[in-house]
Specification:
heterodimer, A: mainly alpha, 2 domains, 16 helices, 8 strands, B: mainly alpha, 0% strand, globular
């Protein structure tokens, strides 16, 4: 068995784990979960120190998918940087679109037409639902049930089919523009969206029957990875994590942007703070997003989708600094942009929710079983490209 | 005897090919998709193609793996599976090996499977495989006990360990079967059978979302193929034994016995597949709790009550 422990030193050095973290003289097992592992969803690597199957310490190691998105902002013009936003988080690209476009608009004082705001809300919420659907399927897959992801993808497919004709892509949208959106939506899109809302409302009870009420699923989630509010605040966790720990903080309500203050919707919270709480929050959010979409589709006004003097590719952003945050599917997406009046921004800092949400994993997983760690990791809803950027 | 072994081998080969195809089709229909459809009519030849692919693959051995244990494990996993089929009465005269202690033979040799998983996990020089092996040992040892106790209760009432005789004592209709007398034993037996064959929701030793592939992480080609074959053969064995013990074996009206046996066995197999594509996986402590805190006491009580009733009657 000597060979088995040979890689121990190397792994621990890279991760900065104390190799002498033995318990009661018993030797611990250092094991690499990832970068290639079915449950780390991408190239996240977690160095686990195990005592039997109990986790002594868990250290996430990131950087396997670093693509220098922030640096790329400095060598591209403001508008050329738009496609990057679709690639930061491939599951919720419109959230990032919105954060970046919002920052430019706030900096330059660009007014967005009414119709464009409605289109943004509709597509943004559709994207939130599709992101949650992927998370839902993948999470249950982590827990060992294969079927729900097939059902979730069937529903997600319908959203992609809706967004494809208007945005031109199915995954990495760059649909928003400073001053509006790239293309206008058609009446058939609005009609299909309403049909989807109705369809999805019938699907959610089916998910409840298939998954949420399953006793094995509940036992795997309830009381697992209890995240206190204090810990959320210490790590800067946002989104469903924070709301799952009983804090109704949602940028859409806390710092209303766009036209979110005109709709009637709830911010779902759960008081338990465990994996099940986060699961419930996300499932409830899908229902709330459907409500927002329904209201927006019914009230969308006529008008232009993009202002006449919309910025062109060589447009120069005015000198200044700006911060704009939106509520993405995973939490608070923030873009801090400094411009010195040039064609390209001087510096762009992306605040990704996944980074903060991952950082608490080490503390949260300590003392849990390996299987619970998988459950916790899944409940954080991580998208690795967003964390590495 | 030799004819019986050859026949058993043939039966295993054909059944496994069909079962894998069936499992994929069941999975497909559970997922609301057609399942394999390209190779052959309705994808019937998909499993054959996959088996050929596995045969053609290079068997790889990781550096530092114990060569003897590593190659022995898949053989140890599969070899007893053939033997297990011999004492099973597939029809009134279709029994490979007529022995008085048939049931005992099956129970004894089914324990060898754990050894194979343990060898595979230990010999692969892989930490995930080692964790899988550790899980499989704890699981198999635990679930074998209530399984034995459930079988014991049935043998009490029938007074025989010979499976053919056991079937002969039951009648053609469900109220003649042992399940009518021992419903709890049937339930315990079936749950333990699912656990013994490492099927979802008890597939912890291979738990692909946690342990990548558990004990067979490092196996490729036919090494993996043999584990795969063994898993499905074990499924056939436990379902056959369950049919013979509780569901009246080949007994049934109108049709010849063999078809009744197959029909009952496949119903049980389909239930196992249905489990696999519906349930999430249990956590390890929950798995052991279920065994030691629920199944074992229940099986004991069942056995005691059976013994008491037998004594009084």
């Amino acid at each position: 068995m000597k060979e088995l422990f040979e890689t121990r030193q190397v792994s621990t050095e890279i991760a900065g784990v104390d190799p002498a973290a033995d318990i009661d003289g018993e030797q611990t097992l250092v094991i690499n979960m990832g970068p290639q592992h079915p449950s780390t969803h991408g190239v996240l690597r977690v160095v686990l120190v195990l005592d039997g199957e109990y986790i002594v310490s868990a250290t996430p190691v990131i950087g396997y998918l670093h693509r220098m998105h922030e640096k790329m902002a400095e060598i591209r013009t403001c508008l050329q940087y738009m496609p990057n936003m679709g690639r930061v988080d491939y599951l919720n690209p419109l959230g990032w679109n919105w954060a970046y476009v919002g920052a430019l608009e706030r900096l330059a004082g660009i007014e967005v037409p009414e119709r464009a705001e409605f289109i943004r809300v509709i597509t943004g919420e559709l994207n939130r639902i599709s992101s949650h659907l992927v998370w839902f399927g993948a999470y249950i897959l982590d827990l060992g049930a294969f079927t729900p992801i097939m059902y979730a993808f069937e529903d997600r497919e319908k959203i992609l089919d809706l967004l494809q004709p208007i945005s031109g892509s199915r995954l990495t949208y760059s649909f928003f523009r400073p001053g509006g959106v790239a293309t206008d939506v058609t009446d058939s899109f609005l009609k299909d969206t309403l049909a989807f809302v109705k369809y999805m409302r019938d699907r959610l009870p089916m998910y409840r029957d298939l998954v949420t009420d399953n006793i094995i699923f509940r036992r795997r989630c309830e009381g697992v990875g209890v995240l206190s509010l204090e810990m959320c605040q210490r790590y800067g966790a946002t989104g469903p994590l924070l709301r799952g720990s009983n804090r109704p903080y949602d940028i859409r309500k806390a710092e209303p942007y766009s036209i979110y203050d005109r709709f009637d919707y709830q911010i779902p919270v759960d008081e338990n703070g465990d994996a099940m709480g986060r699961y419930r929050v996300r499932m409830a959010e899908m229902a709330e997003s459907l409500r927002i979409i329904e209201q927006a589709v019914n009230r969308i006004p006529e008008g232009e989708h993009l202002i006449k003097k919309a910025p062109k590719p060589l447009w120069k952003a005015p000198k200044g600094e700006v911060y704009f945050a939106v509520e993405g599917a995973r939490g608070k997406i923030g873009v801090y942009l400094i411009s010195n009046g040039d064609k390209h921004p001087y510096r762009v800092k992306l605040r990704s929710p996944g980074f903060s949400n991952l950082s608490l994993f080490g503390e949260l997983a300590k003392g849990h079983l390996l299987q619970d760690a998988v459950s916790i990791l899944g409940s954080l809803d991580l998208v690795i490209p967003e964390i590495d950027r | 005897m030799i004819i019986a072994v050859v026949a058993a081998a043939l039966f295993v080969a054909v059944s496994v090919i069909f079962l894998v195809y069936l499992e994929r089709k069941v999975a497909g229909h559970v997922h609301r998709r057609p399942g394999p459809f390209e190779v052959g009519p309705h994808g019937m030849l998909q499993t054959v193609a996959d088996a050929l692919k596995l045969l053609g693959k290079q068997p790889l051995k990781p550096d530092g793996a114990d060569p003897v244990l590593f190659w022995l494990a898949p053989i140890v996993a599969f070899a007893p599976a053939l033997l297990l089929l011999l004492p099973i009465p597939f029809g009134p005269i279709l029994t490979g090996l007529e022995v008085n202690l048939g049931l005992l033979l099956i129970l004894a040799f089914s324990g060898v499977n754990v050894l194979a998983l343990c060898l595979a996990g230990w010999g692969s020089n892989n930490k995930w495989a080692l964790l899988g092996a550790a899980r499989s040992v704890a699981q198999a040892v635990g679930y074998e006990i209530p399984l034995l106790l459930a079988v014991l209760a049935v043998t009490f009432t029938n007074g025989t360990l010979n499976l053919s005789e056991m079937v002969a004592r039951q009648g053609p209709y469900p109220w003649h079967w042992n399940i009518a007398i021992q419903p709890l034993a049937f339930f315990i037996f079936f749950v333990c059978a699912v656990a013994e064959t490492n099927r979802n929701p008890f597939d912890l030793p291979e738990a692909e979302s946690e342990l990548t592939a558990g004990f067979h992480t490092e196996y490729s080609g036919m090494g993996f193929g043999l584990f795969f074959l063994a898993e499905y053969t074990n499924m056939i064995v436990v379902c056959s034994v369950c049919t013979a013990l509780f569901l009246g074996g080949w007994q049934g009206p109108f049709l010849p016995g063999f078809w009744w046996f197959l029909a009952k066995m496949y119903v049980l197999l389909l239930v196992m597949m249905w489990f696999r594509w519906t349930f999430p996986r249990l956590r390890f402590d929950q798995l052991l709790n279920l065994n030691w805190k629920w199944l074992l006491p229940l099986a004991l009580i069942n056995l005691m009550v059976t013994a008491l009733v037998m004594k009084l009657a």
